[in-house]
Amino acid sequence: MYLLKTQNRVVQCCFSARHLIIAALFMWSGVIAFAQPEHSVITYPSGDSLLITADEYFQSDTLPYLILLHEQGSSRGEFTEIVHRFQKMNFNCLVPDLRNGGNANFTSNETAVRSRELGVSRNRHAVEQDILASVNHAYRKSGKRVVLLGAGANASLALKAAKEQETVHAVIALSPGEFFQPLLSVEDTIAGLQKPVLITATKEEFPYMEQLTTKVNNTNIILFAPDQSPGERGTQALLPSNPSSSEYWFNILLFFKDLQ
Question: Deepest of 44, 65, 250, 254, by most Cβ within 10 A of its Cβ?
């Protein structure tokens, strides 16, 4: 059973064949033990000419891009364990190092290092430039609107980008929040957002996410948190170490299915 808000209603859902669904999910996702998907390490300029380092997992020029945005203080290494799952959902994947980062999974954030060495701005506006540059890079390569998946503070910026950028098709926001007050209210900024949105949370965070999306009034928005377990915040919710990770993945799968 899990908590789900869709079309501004909160319902409790229970899978009668939960274990079969979980088994099917893992078969579909093609769990590959210890295998690392092939990728290229690329660079492209942000709005202020700072070079952004990114991992690009390119499969076909017929596929859209999913852009994975790590949490503040992290790096592109945050997605190393799970990026192959998104590839199997028929996406090219772009995983940039944003300048508000650090280290994750033994992967240094090269964009953050470069920004410190050059002494350029690392504030919210600068990070938004990095996100927009990543969106533009992916859109130029595929000619298709992109999907953003962000965690923590960068999940909030992903929602903001979706409201402002026509080239963003949909958003998955993992534990977004009001990380930028008093200078920016995310609740006010995303008011009227009319694109497909999936927001995941812990059970404790769920009421907070309802408040965050009060002004969205979007029948395409889904809020998810597990009901029978505490859940995990951010990207941690998707890792195998989270006992309820299969429920988060199942909702992502359904969300992408509805985008087709």
Answer: 65
List residues bridging with 5 in a β-sheet: 10, 223
Instruction: Judge whether 202 and 228 are in contact, CB under 8 Å.
Output: no
Residues of the chain with pLDDT under 50: 1-2, 7-20, 22-23, 25-35
Contact present, 161 and 132 (Cβ < 8 Å): yes
Q: In this structure, which topology does domain 2-259 adopt according to CATH?
A: Rossmann fold (3.40.50)
pLDDT in tens, 53-74: 999 999 999 999 999 999 999 9
Q: How far apart are CA 139 and CA 88, in angstroms?
A: 20
Mind listing the pLDDT tens digit for each residue in 87-97? 999 999 999 99
